[in-house]
């Protein structure tokens, strides 16, 4: 079982990494995608909104699907579709073609995100300690790799297809091979596919709501970085296209650093303190971006922002799994929808405010929403976060036996 857990943890981390590469290659080349297909500034928010809407549909469908097949199987086939859809974005030359490719990307990424986090939550329960931030750190590492590739593509003026093809050729078969070692919920340790929660009842939305709001606020902030950082640097701070790829890269570097240390922070200080600190630091980053006099100060703001936001989302997924230990798959799938609600609100909101007012002022809106996370930080309290502060560790010793040192 120890070997199985080790392989399962490594293979799932690799899946997170692959998704980080894929997503970064898409979002950091939005200006290039816009130019290639002649998408107007007015139409761009529509395309950016369509992807999270379809991803939400994919996440809801995954909740239904995992009642019939294990999450590992959903992830095994969703990831190749996401990679092929990315290639499709770079291969077309007509507006309808990029629309189809982005639609497929959205549906598949919803299933991928939901199933990845389902497996992460169940593995954390089996380990009996916080490991969820580590998976998201792998995603951040992938984001750094993808953003660096995007920078190289912009620097050497490569077409989108030429930039994307080697990535898909390498990562698609690697992801399929790695999927052989995914670990689903341990028998008897998780009834996630049953749709039942505490005491065998259904997932109660009222109990899940605070976490849904936190997820929404976090992804409004994250979508602002992923969808608008490049454009903000070019149009507001006057950078080149090459430099405009840097903010997302440094943002992901800081999320890697924060998440790499985050599990230790959660075990030492508890999730409430970590989430509160992340909210304050994230809001500070948005304030720096809004006030930045030039490109490099703006990049500093996005750097600070990454260090703050990075801890919130993994802890929200983990808290949902612990809140409904008998229905973690259902809870994660429903919570994951608010990932896309955040993207759906954040992308057009910042764009609309930027067009109607100015983009500097638009950055203050996600700043306020990230600060609002402080109102719900008690949702991560020790009573729900039994692995975060070390309480009830003895109760989980049998479950986690054999996993020490992994």
From TrEMBL:
Annotated transmembrane regions: 12-30, 42-62, 74-92, 98-119, 131-154, 160-183, 203-221, 273-292, 298-320, 332-353, 359-377
Record bears the keyword Amino-acid biosynthesis: no
Alphabetical list of Gene3D superfamilies matching this protein: MFS general substrate transporter like domains
Domain Major facilitator superfamily (MFS) profile: start-end pairs: 208-406
Main localization category: membrane
Keywords of the record: Membrane, Transmembrane, Transmembrane helix
One family name in Pfam for this protein: MFS_1
Membrane topology: Multi-pass membrane protein
Coiled-coil annotated spans: none
Xref: CDD domains: MFS_MosC_like (cd17393)
SUPFAM superfamilies, per the entry: MFS general substrate transporter
Record has Membrane as a keyword: yes
InterPro entries assigned to the protein according to its UniProt record, in alphabetical order: MFS, MFS_dom, MFS_trans_sf, MFS_Transporter
Localization annotation: Cell membrane
Protein name: MFS transporter
